[in-house]
Design brief:
The complex is a heterodimer of chains A (116) and B (566). By secondary structure, chain A is of the alpha/beta class. Chain A has one domain: STAS domain (Transcription Regulator spoIIAA). Chain A is built from four helices and five strands, in the order ββαβαβαβα. Chain A has helices spanning 30-42, 60-75, 87-95, 108-115, and strands at residues 6-13, 16-25, 47-58, 79-83, 104-105. A five-stranded mixed sheet of chain A has the order 1-2-3-4-5. In chain A, helix 1 runs parallel beside helix 2. Chain B is α+β, with helices and mostly antiparallel strands. Chain B folds into three domains: 17-373, no CATH class; 374-431, no CATH class; 435-565, Heat Shock Protein 90 (2-Layer Sandwich), CATH 3.30.565. Chain B has helices spanning 17-32, 36-44, 49-71, 92-121, 125-128, 134-157, 166-185, 188-192, 194-208, 214-222, 243-268, 277-297, 306-315, 320-333, 337-344, 348-371, 377-395, 397-401, 408-411, 414-429, 448-462, 466-483, 524-529, 531-545, and strands at 85-87, 302-304, 435-442, 488-499, 503-512, 548-554, 557-565. In chain B, the strands form two sheets. Chain B has a five-stranded antiparallel sheet with strand order 3-4-5-7-6, with helices on one face. In chain B, strands 1-2 form a two-stranded antiparallel sheet. The longest helix of chain B has 30 residues, at 92-121. The mean pLDDT of chain B is 92. The chains are: A alpha/beta (116), B alpha+beta (566).
Chain lengths: 116, 566
Amino acid sequence: MGASTLQISEVRAGQTCILALAGRIDSTNADQLTARVGKLFEAGEKNLVVDFKEVLYLTSAAFRVLLVATDDAERSAARFALCGVLGHVRELFEMGGLLDAFTIHASREDAIEQLR
Amino acid sequence: MKKPAHITYGVADSPPILVTVFNGVQLVGLISINLVYPLLVFRVADTPVELVANLMAIGMLVLGVATFLQSLRLGPVGSGFMCPATFTASYFPPSLLAAKMGGLPMVFGMTLFAGVLEGALAPLLNRLRAVFPIEISGLVIFMIGWSAGIAGLRLLLADPTAPLTAAECAVAVLTLVTMVALNVWGKGVVRMLCALIGIACGYVAAGFAGLVDAHQLAAVTAAPWIGIPTFGHVSWTFDAALAAPFAIACIAAALKALGTITICQRMNDADWVRPDMRSATRGVLADGMSTALAGVAGAMGTNTSTPAVGLASATGVGSRKVAYAVGTIFVMLSLFPKLAATLAAVPRAVAVAALLFAVSFVIINGLQVIASRLLDARRTLTLGLAFVGGGAVDVFPAVAASAPKALIPVVGSSFVFATMIALVLNLLFRVGVKKTVNLKVEVEAIEPQKIEDFFKLNGAKWGARPDVVTRATFGVIQLIDAVRGEYWRGGALDVKASFDEFNLNVDLAYDGDALEFPQQRPSNKQIRESEDGARLMAGYMLRKCADRLRSQRKDGKAIVHLHYDH
């Protein structure tokens, strides 16, 4: 869509890289996220967490990105997880029957702890 | 389903045998208080005590079978939850009417009618909400409690053949005070079984005061310890004049079953978002079948027990195995004629006190349901006039008595008359309720924020529930996201949103190809590997997010109708 904005910021916590997302994820910016995740795996990242806490909404385009990322992680022998999947965003995961398709942690701290 | 943290044993878990049995006994104690409803109906029909004893045994057998029917999942029947059956206040006022008009055969025949009707209504429940909105459900619950209380008091205070004595008054007060005191200040099991303890105290006091009829006492003594209830005396008659009261009670029972099963769903699923109508429909069908079975066997209408589910939530034991225990205990109790005879001989002062205790909760439950809605002028007038109309029936019974005979079941019952007034006014006030707004989205200027604001602003104006507005907003944004590019050829995409309190309908029309809306989710591989897979996922999500979806082509445009229940 014309004006959808998605901010992606990168934070490191020890051996884990966190991609904190904010805004909306749809087909206009899904490629931006795919490229960012792809680059990290290519660079040898072994522990990647995507934080959805500040995501306002997402469309099915986001699910495609995440499924591709799960595949990339497997190929790179890396660990890939999500956190901050709450409220309406969680409902969308549930609606899409995708809660079990990803490793989802309750919070960023939990995810870091688990991936340590 | 993800089990919530406070639930120790979820619906599919198997608790240790002792936990199962103890919880089963607790629930049977809680449910047994409602045996007072059929007991009073049988008394009004001047049924001999020996027959009442047999009918009470049949009643317990019906409760046992009904509990199994609800907790098992036999094809399209049964919610599968720990949701025991109980006799209900809903069928008390119409059953009293039937008992007065045609004795027990009329009670059983009309109960059978109500059960069949509830079963038939089960798949239509969701659409009934416009006719029977939440506040009218609250009014019906309130009026059930109110008219049951008044009927109980009439039995005690206004029976010309047996005027109230000072001893009866004292026993009634003692019974009620015991129940109230244990309920307010008691703890644990004592509090939970306060009604049964109150009945036991009242029974003993009535015995000392000489209020237990010698004939009834002889029936208890003569009753064997073990025996099977007999069905030879059961017969059925029907009267069209009673169809309205039983139909209203049946809808009230169906809505209560729906509510109780929704509580079960929430109790067992930490990720619960909205009612699952499949298990709810199966549960309401089981509820209707149980009432039909009650009519056939010779009992009063049954319903799901909300207090029992509440207790299961409090104890954290929601396993359906506990429901099997409850069902088994009730079936076993039906095989003890002496127990049934003891119940049948409960003095009226004790039974009416127990009734007043039980209906207090029904009345307040009705008020709470009403208070959960924002009451605008239409609803205020609907409820206010219905209350006044219902109250007038009890204050001026002579007016109703002078009505044509066919109308007496409607105008002679405060419960039925108040409900009728509310239903008519509700339908009348729906005229002019529907509001429609439009939005044009240009392909070259799609702004999600604008779409969000459009729904947020109008949703607030309409008083629509935020969760429904959010789903509708997602539907529009998801559809636009999926069709932009290849499917949407250009020009404006028209969004038309209509709201009428029970429905939010969103129609989207655009020049281009129709999207596919699959019933099955595409596989992860399909989604990953192609744009088409991702688009199928969009169609699947749209189907899941709306309560109903329809797609068509008209005048060269693709049109998608999204319907959301409100």
